[in-house]
Amino acid sequence: MDIDWTLVVMAAAWAIILGGAGGFLTEIGEWYRNLEKPSWQPPDWLFGPVWTVILGLSGWSFYLASKEATTTNDALIIGGLFAVNFIFHFAWSPLFFKAKRPDWALLENVFLWLSVLSLVVVLPRYSQLAGQLNWAYLAW
After folding, report:
1. Do the Cβ atoms of 128 and 69 come closer than 8 Å?
2. Of the four listed, 15, 23, 29, 120, which is most buried by Cβ atoms within 10 Å?
């Protein structure tokens, strides 16, 4: 198996930066604790481990799909999908935790979810597993 280390570094950086930024921008303070939350919301301690797994799987999908890109256009499509997802994923925490605007974060979440759906739909053209690795992201 031939490993493309440039792609490994890019995929890992994508996941690490998103996970790190999300953690850094998340403030579990009085404002958050006083929000009315649904009974089905997972406990706060679960978010870090779950996002680590989800972003790790998605980063792996970035690697798998990119490795199978046979043209520059394919690489641009895959890179574009992950760039758009990066932007929408990155934007959620500042909207929710810094701006304290759950309404804006909910609206932005529609675009984030659509960007994840695009990964699930488009990546199987390059790698079936790459698309499947994003199902957890879509479901969460």
Report:
1. no
2. 15
Distance of alpha carbon 47 from alpha carbon 55, whole angstroms = 12
pLDDT bucket at 39, cuts 50 / 70 / 90: very high
Burial 13-47 (b: 16+ CB within 10 A, else e): ebbeebbeebeebbeeeeeeeeeeeeeeeeeeeeb
Q: What's the Cα-to-Cα distance from 110 to each of 50, 51, 125, 138, rounded to whole Å?
A: 20, 18, 24, 11
d(CA 51, CA 44): 12
The contacts of residue 56 (CB under 8 Å, 6+ apart) are 15
Residue 27 has a pLDDT of: 87
> What element of type H or E holds 125?
none
pTM value surpassing 0.85: yes
Asked if pLDDT for residue 1 goes beyond 80, the answer is no
Other beta carbons within 10 angstroms of residue 55's beta carbon come to: 21
Structure tokens at 57: 């799987």
pLDDT tens sequence across 54-97: 999 999 999 999 999 999 999 999 999 999 999 999 999 999 99
